[in-house]
Known about the structure:
The complex is a heterotrimer of chains A (257), B (291) and C (280). Chain B has 291 residues and is α/β, with parallel strands linked by helices.
Amino acid sequence: MKTLKNLGYVLGLPVLLILIWWAATLGTVNFFVPTPASLVETFGEVWFGERIFTDVLPSIGRLTVGVLAAIVIGVIGGVLIGSVRWLRSLLEPTLEFFRAIPPPVLVPVLMLLMGITDTMKVVVIISGCVWPVLLNTIEGVRAVDPVLSDSAHTYGIDGWARVRYLVLPSASPQIMAGVRQSISLGLILMVISEMFASSSGLGFTIVQFQRSFSIPEMWSGIVVLGLLGVGMSFIFQWAERNILRWYHGQKEVENAA
Amino acid sequence: MQPDSTHAAPEAMLSVRGLKKVYQSDGGDVEAVRNLTFDLRAGELACLVGPSGSGKTTLLKCISGLMAPTEGEVLLDGKRVSGPPKKMAVVFQEYGRSLFPWMRVRDNVDLPLKNQGVPKAERDRLVDEALEAVGLSHVPRSYPWQLSGGMQQRVAIARAIAYQPEVLLMDEPFAAVDAQTRADLEDLIRIVWKKLGITVLFVTHDIDESVYLGERVIILSSSPTVVQEDITIDLPDERDQLETRSLARFTELRHHVYEQIQIAKKGHRPAAAGTAGAGSTPAAASGADVA
Amino acid sequence: MSSKTLTSGAAAPSVERPHRTARKVPTKQLLGLAGILGFLLTWELIPRLGIIDAKYLPPASEVIAALVVDFGLTAFWVAVGETMKAWFLGLLMAVAAAVVLGFIIGSSNFLRKATNSTIEFLRPIPSVALIPLAVLLFGVKIESSLLLIVYAAFWQVLIQVLYGVADVDMVANNTAKTYGLGRMARIRYVVFPTALPYLMTGVRLAGAVALVLAITAELVIGSPGLGREIALAQSGGAISGMYALVLATGLIGVLINMLMRFIEKKTLSWHSSVRSEVVV
């Protein structure tokens, strides 16, 4: 009975909205808004075919590589910079400035420096996505509990062991917050770099549809991007729940007190 | 000030010599600790008490190698302490912040050994024994934050025990724990101490606790700190929360320590500042002494 | 009374007179400055030494000179104005909508549960997915930018407002009820102050996002503003000019950051703790 009720909550509003959409487009043919039926039909036509391999998968591939590379660079750099106080003071203002630059402007810059290649698109993603992870990692490393740090030190847990057992786990909530920002940023940059400077990929395809006024196709492209965003969000939440299980548990206990 | 080195007892496990710590800040230098000198024999359980701000934490940080003294030195088994020594374990007051929240109890106790490269079979044995010694064999898979304060401190103690140190430093470990749990933990410390034969330096602000636990109580003056007095506790070896605390001798000793601390709070300090012998026994007080 | 082992009070010195040490120079700020200068120096040297072709990466001095020139041009400030206009209007609309909806949804358990799936589904949809739609509907007008900005900023604020309303102390709320405060009064005196810190966090996050989307829209769609100027500079070969504009957007980003933090601090000066961001 409870699951049925929960299901009702989950599906209720969406179904309602879809019904309204369907009713609103009944009968008349609106240029801007396709009917639900035609959208579903178009969706199948457009995306389940060769396009998956020529556009969708390569785009997703670049995105994944870019975001993962950004995370690795951000974490490693963040641990290094965060652990050496003078280095942090030296670099922090410069890094904050870089973070403040809206990532999309890097597209024309990198296009200039690297031409329009797959590498360039990946570098665009990396260059935008590294900042949230890097700066959050620095912050997380800096904020390691001093009592815990002393404890580890007295037991001879130093050097690499310290990073592995103390610093990284302690900073992981901060790092995960940065990763979440990175992922949404990555998606944006992937789309932009393809809309602005490309001849293939998801972003390019969707823009093509719009330019040729293939409206239902365009909408189907929007839906694909939406699904991609939601999918990535799910994957992230699943990963976060596992990695930060101890953190959530601890917070729960603290809040109950 | 030259430390008095006539008490360089060769069998001393822990030696504090002329320890001095000056903190530098924008407002000027602050001398927190002026001169601390005392020795601990191997297997001794000594308590350190003092008024607030008497530099107990500073002293502990210097002894444990977490902080370098401005002058003076600490010797562990004859060797100079310049960083956290391998044969020393520390139990902090803030148990919630000294255990790794992302590891289960067992892994917490296991980690220092794992870090030293102790083989797994040996590690398992040590961890099991330690957990049993503190009475936590039933919660190895819990996370620290799932446990009560007293249990968390037991985990910290288990971790220290499993590490097999020669010297155990305890920095007001039971200050943040409720009174009943504190009594249990005090007894636990004495049991563990006797069983393992380790040297224990127990820092506390609780006068009763210091007299109940220690073979010896070192009283600190207020800052800049020196040793105010060093007392031998001549209570029977078998201590019991109810029995021992109702002994007349307990009350006398307790009274004496309390007096000394009151004096220390007022800023008085001994003429021969700094040195402490192996401990003098205060004479049984007669009624006239109480002014 | 005197104890056997003590000197009397008068002779014993207490705390030593502290002697003045030299005031330490603020090392942290100096290092930071050194870092910035070091970066500029590296930027200057890389093209000059030919590591990267100066055609594609002009030296820092040239770019900064171009930026200074820009500061004197009306066209530059017009573009900045356009970007700021879009940013401000978009942010305003997003915050207004998010506050209203957030309070309505947040104060009803039913609404909260009913809308949860929809919010969690719509939220991760990237604003940029709406670019084709924006072009279709509004072309290169500012409304295109606004569509993107509002969509992205709205979610940031909404999520935070929902958290804020959820955080209302039940005791305080019930106490207010027993004193006969109606719904509107309770919202004003109990709910709003609790939610305010969250709201300010949301506004700060939204402010940053809004800038990103504003520039994005201008860059990709061509609506008026700095983003469009950057695209034009790039396609027209004015490379130093393009880099200068990139720097300008960075500076604007930093300024907006500072502005948002300032506003947050001012509005929350009564709040004992500046709440840290809810990890969403």
